[in-house]
Write a structure and sequence with these properties.
alpha/beta; Rossmann fold; 5-stranded parallel sheet; two-stranded antiparallel sheet; 8 helices; 31% helix; 13% strand
Length: 291
Amino acid sequence: MKTIPSPRRKTAAPERSSVGRALTHLGSGTSSPYGSVAVLVSGGIESAAMLHRLSLRYGAVHPVYVRAGLLWERAELHWLRRLLRALRRPAIKPLTCLELPVGDCYPSGHWSLSGRRVPDARSPDETVYLPGRNALLLTKAATFCAGRGIDSIALGVLSTNPFPDGSPRFLRLMARALSAGLGAPLRVIAPLAGMDKARVIGSSGDLPWKLTFSCKRPRGLRHCGECNKCAERNAGLAAALSKAGRLPGLRPRRKAPTSIRLRPPWPSPEPGPRRHHHRSGSGRGDTRRAS
């Protein structure tokens, strides 16, 4: 008697997370089926790269800045607005600022609020960790998106991110929890995952990097040049500059080719009264105020 072999069961391919699907799609070079995306921005290098990349694939890109009452936010917002004006992409919508104060969550005198003992350039990246940062940002942004039909939120997480709230597992779980809690499907995507800062710069084209800002202890509207974030930004720009040879608004120092000098995009202080030096008969310089 001839036996009929039983049909083989087709094993279903494991379902990829919303993070993985979005990342695969964003790297494919095809137009996005998703209509709009909210981008959590701070004004740094990752913000510029995400806005540029996503504006090529989404019909509407909504930059979202969350104000938490932290030390550097005034300077960040100044440079973020200048960056957005310089990008001039039709898909990029006006900046949305949301409020989420954390002063009552962090310990009294925390460096991010007080400006004391800010992690310096020699400190490990773990020292700039802000507890609950991405969880708070995503929750606030998701609530904003749910009422506006925006189904994706982009976060500028890099391969060098050492924090637990930057892992693919965390982003996947947050997407599920927010979708369930808000009653609407929501993706959390990380379009720069797998790259370090130098690769982000090198692969993002000719963007106005000089207008990016990342500093934990700004001096007015300027980088302090001494904190952990200043060091990280400068190292990324220097590495990208050494490979590309030139970047907009940046040039290598003659004595140290691996370092960079920023051409200050901020306005110079108003010049004071000029002084002229006249030689007297005794040979001493007589300084007089110009009339």
